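# nightly structure sweep
# worker-07 picked up a monomer target from the shared queue
# config: single-sequence mode, recycle default, output format = structure tokens
# input follows
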Amino acid sequence: MLKLDFFSRSAKWALQPTALCFIALAAVSGASQASDLDKAINSEVARTQAAQSQQNQIDQLDSSIREETRDYYRLVKEIEGLNVYVKQMSRQVTAQEEELQQIEDSIKQVTLIERQVVPLMLKMIDSIEQFVKADVPFMREERTARVENLKALMDRADVSAAEKFRKVMEAYQTEMTYGRTIKAYRGELTIDGTQKAVDFLRVGRISLMYQSLDGQAVGAWDQQAGQWSPLGSEYKSRVAQGIRIAREQAAPDLIKVPVAAPVTANKEAQ
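# output follows
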């Protein structure tokens, strides 16, 4: 019994170091495993962070690509619009070049026409002057002054040929108007060697009469004789009535006026 007890005690003390070794080994093993676990966790965290960083870079690249894609399509639209605009401008430029060529051709023609029109206008002014001299002598001073103004206008370099032509045509229109209007105006006339103020009455170009302001003297222009001829007393009221109508002091009405007989123009005068 003693031996067994001794053996038991001896075995007990003999097993204690072994147990301690196992405990120590377990502790060392646990510490090693914890260290490996930490390393594994840290490694996984590092990989996760790296993956997150890469994902962020991918997201940034994707956003950049999307923005650049939008810019690209926007530029494509702008280019398309610019191409349409350029085509339109090209058509306009072509049209303007054609118009410019037409203007240049017109300028050349205008220069040629101007060289032809100026002699024509001079002849027209001369015709008006001759007509005024040969016509019934109504408003002769005014009409003669108009002709002189036209002559002076033709010598001016600051007036265009178009403006000169317009003035000449206005003079022609004015002369044409005289033939279809009735007019009364005041002037002076030598009667029986005395200068007197009279009222003139013009009925178109067919008759030109006068009446003294006191209404006693009346007369008419004799185109064939080229002088004034007195009228009988029966014309006093007629001429006075015509003057009132011309001045719109009386309603329009028929009046009897002396009219010279038509004269046949001779060939030499033509």
